[in-house]
Amino acid sequence: MKHALESQVGEVWVEGEVSNLKKQGSGHWYFSLKDEGAQIQCAMFGAAKRPGAAALQDGALVRVFAEASVYEARGQLQLIVLRAELAGLGELQARFEALKRKLQAEGLFEASRKQALPAFPRVIGIVTSDTGAVIRDILNILQRRAPWVQPVLLPVRVQGRGAEREIAAAIDKLGRPEAFGLPRCDVLIVGRGGGSLEDLWCFNEEVVARAIAACPVPVISAVGHEIDFTIADFVADLRAPTPSAAAELAVPDGAELLARLVQLRRRLARVTAERLARAEAQLNGLKRGTLQRGGDKLLREPMQRLDTLRARLAQILRNKLDSATTRLQGLRSRHRSQQPARVLDRRLEHITSQRQRLAHLSQAALQLHHQRLARLRGMLRTLGPESAFQRGFSITIGPDGRILRSAVALQPGDRLLTKFGDGSIPSRVLNASAAEKGFGTF
């Protein structure tokens, strides 16, 4: 049979769900592949070196390339797996990664937006199935660790089509409990037990992720086993590896708290007793020493110091007051000198003085100019043409408007103007020969 299978069937591709995966210390892995109607044993020798070994997880749907064979010791049909790859989950994995990138880009995974869990919650909301071991484990742990806590269960489906909407609706209700007549919770636990990727897929839906992100109450995600990761784990305020671990993380251990209180009470009693003993010893020492003396003797030196300080304080105050008085007087004197009326009076006096000075200087300057003008007028009469006119002289002006000093440059037809003391006469040149100059008048 073994020879016939290996030679006639040989290497084949087989698709199925991984079940009962066992990883031996030798490095060989053993598991079963199953579907709805059958299963077959598989072995992968040296699995760490085989391609696609990471795809082999309980509940994973895979395709394996294997050799058909028979395990002779048991007479059992088996597949010797050479490589493996995800089958049917490729699309889910792609959707998972795409949604993860989208929500991460929106900042829903940021640590800054995550809420801290309360140290001593009183009411804990639970969103999971009301059947199965998960809810029983959570309730047992809460009862054992914190019997004072009130659990509030909103049962939902945690698998199958439409389960994600039930989970999101339950989270929304516990986030707004007053609108639905529910008690206000201090923390929520959302999760389910382990399973395949398809079983956990409702916790990878966007509607659940956004409901967790929008919830005003801190949310603990407790989906599957420790190796399972969902989108809800990344968005939640805290991820627990299992639902049981979520219950332990949500509440403190009452027994530990009680033991801690007992320890603190003992320490407080010990410290109090030690302090009382030290205070009693100090008091006894004072009774034997200082307190045995009279009270008036104890108060002499403090009273003396008080009198000295009182005198120093009075002197300091007097000095301060004298200094302030002197300064005030100076300010008053300065204020009086700087009053607007006084300033205006001084400026008016200055302006009046300047006006008088200006008038005096102007009068002197005008008188000086009058004297100078009179001298110039006398000189003009003496040296000017009027004196020449009075002596019988005249002035002839040439055609160019200048005084004619010579007849050499004259030409026949040139017009002249001769000025006398009592008037002027125009004339014209008739002959301009060098021997004789003839003039004609108009």
Got a strand count? 14
Sheet with most strands: strand arrangement: 1-2-3-5-4
Radius of gyration: 61 Å
Question: What would CATH call the homologous superfamily of the domain at 93-252?
Answer: Succinyl-CoA synthetase domains
Please write the string of helix (H) and strand (E) elements: HEEEEEHEHEHEHEHEHHHHHEEEE
**Major sheet characteristics:** 5 strands, mixed, barrel
Assembly annotation: single chain
**Which structural class matches the secondary elements?**
alpha/beta
Structure at a glance:
Helix content is 45%, strand content 22%. It is α/β, with parallel strands linked by helices and 442 residues long. Residues 434-442 have low confidence and may be disordered.
